[in-house]
Design goal:
The structure holds 2 protein chains of 2 kinds.
Chain A: H1 3-11, H2 22-29, H3 34-47, E1 50-57, E2 65-71, H4 78-87, E3 91-97, E4 103-109, H5 112-126, E5 131-133, E6 137-141
Helix pairs in contact in A: 2-3
Chain B: H1 2-6, H2 8-19, H3 29-37, H4 41-53, E1 57-64, E2 73-80, H5 86-94, E3 99-104, E4 116-122, H6 125-139, E5 145-157
Antiparallel strand pairs in B: 2-4, 2-5, 3-4
Classes of the chains: A alpha+beta, B alpha+beta.
Chain lengths: ~150, ~160
C-alpha cells in the first residue's frame, strides 16, 4: 500500500460521483488518472484490502428491516447452535463475543413482518430465546477507517 | 424497456440487485450497468441520484477491510444511560472520531440493561479499552454502567443482500 492507495481509502469511502466518467472526476481530486484509479481499486479488491466498491444501500430506507439480535448460548452447544442460526439466509453476519450474551447476529429482511417471523423460527430451531435489539435511533455511522 | 421508466420501484429493485455486490470497474460504470439492465444511462444515473438524496443509498465508494488495515480489535461498547438524555448523549458519543457506529437500542431487563451501543475499533484490545474509558470519563455519572464486548470469532459474514 503506497501513498496513493492511502489517499483512495481515506477519501473515497463516500462521494464517488454519479456521471458518465466518474473515475475521471474522482481521479482529478486524488491527483491521479482515470486508468490508474481503476487499476488501484481493482488491485486493492483482489488483494483483500477492500471488501467492496460501489453503492452501500440502507436497508430500512429501502423498505426492508434490519435488527441486531443476541443469544446466550451454552458453550457445550455453541457450534451446533451457530450452524443452525447461520443456515438462515436472513442472517447477514454473526459474531461470537466474550460475554454471557455470546452470540450476536444481524438479521436483514425485505419487510418488518419477515423479521419477526425469522426471530421466532430461530427460537424454534435452537430452543434458545433471541433478544431482538432493533435500533430506535441512529446517531452516527462513520467513515472512520483511516490509514 | 419503456416499462422500466414508468415503474421506478421495479427498476430500483433491479438496480439494487445488479449493483449490491459492486459497481463495474469500467471507465463508464453507470453506462455499463444501464446496458446490462436495458435502460438509458441518464435514467439509471437519475435513479442513483434520487436514491442518494432519499437516503436509500448511504454512500458510494470503497469499503475497506478493517482487519487488513490493522484495526483488528473490534469492541462493542454498551451503556446504560437515562432514556430522557439518550438523544443528547448519543449525539455526543457518535461525534467522537473513535466511534464508528452509535445506536439507541431497547433494553431487555433483567438480562440486558444497556440502551446505547457504540462500536469502537482499534489496533488492540488495550487500545479499544482505553478509548472506551475516554467515553466513560466524558459521560461521567450519566452512564450508570457500561461494558465492552469483544468479538472472538466471525461465525458468518455475507453482508446484506436482497433476494433475486
Amino acid at each position: 500500500m503506497d501513498e496513493l492507495d492511502r489517499r483512495i481509502i481515506n477519501r473515497l469511502q463516500g462521494g464517488f460521483p454519479v456521471c458518465e466518467r466518474p473515475f475521471q472526476e474522482a481521479a482529478g481530486q486524488l491527483d491521479t488518472t482515470e486508468s490508474e484509479l481503476i487499476t488501484r481499486i481493482r488491485c486493492m479488491l483482489d488483494d483483500g484490502l477492500l471488501t467492496r466498491f460501489g453503492p452501500m444501500y440502507h436497508a430500512e430506507n429501502m423498505g426492508g428491516a434490519l435488527s441486531l439480535c443476541a443469544m446466550k448460548v451454552p458453550l457445550e452447544n455453541f457450534e451446533e447452535v451457530a450452524e443452525r442460526v447461520n443456515t438462515f439466509p436472513e442472517v447477514a453476519h454473526n459474531y461470537q463475543r466474550d460475554h454471557e450474551m455470546n452470540m450476536w447476529f444481524v438479521l436483514a429482511t425485505e419487510t418488518p413482518e419477515q423479521l419477526d417471523e425469522c426471530v421466532k423460527k430461530i427460537e424454534e430451531s435452537t430452543g434458545i430465546p433471541v433478544f431482538n435489539l432493533p435500533k430506535k435511533e441512529e446517531f452516527y455511522v462513520g467513515l472512520h477507517f483511516k490509514v | 424497456m419503456s416499462m422500466d421508466a414508468d415503474d421506478p420501484v421495479q427498476l430500483d429493485r433491479r438496480i439494487v440487485l445488479a449493483s449490491q455486490a459492486g459497481l463495474p470497474l469500467d471507465a463508464r460504470p453507470y453506462h455499463w450497468l444501464a446496458s446490462e439492465l436495458g435502460v438509458e444511462p441518464d435514467v439509471l444515473m437519475e435513479r442513483f441520484r434520487i436514491m442518494l438524496d432519499e437516503g436509500r443509498i448511504r454512500r458510494i465508494g470503497v469499503v475497506p477491510n478493517h482487519y487488513r488495515l490493522g484495526y483488528s480489535a473490534n469492541g462493542m461498547s454498551v451503556w446504560d444511560v437515562p432514556d430522557e438524555d439518550i438523544g443528547a448523549i448519543g449525539k455526543q458519543v457518535g461525534e467522537l472520531d473513535i466511534v464508528s457506529h452509535c445506536y439507541h437500542r431497547p433494553r431487555h431487563l433483567p438480562d440486558w440493561p444497556y440502551n446505547l451501543f457504540a462500536m469502537v475499533h482499534g489496533h488492540s484490545q488495550d487500545e479499544v479499552r482505553r478509548k472506551v474509558e475516554q467515553i466513560a470519563q466524558l459521560l461521567g455519572n450519566k452512564a450508570r454502567r457500561h461494558d465492552v464486548l469483544f468479538s472472538t470469532r466471525i461465525l458468518k459474514k455475507t453482508g446484506l443482500r436482497i433476494g433475486g
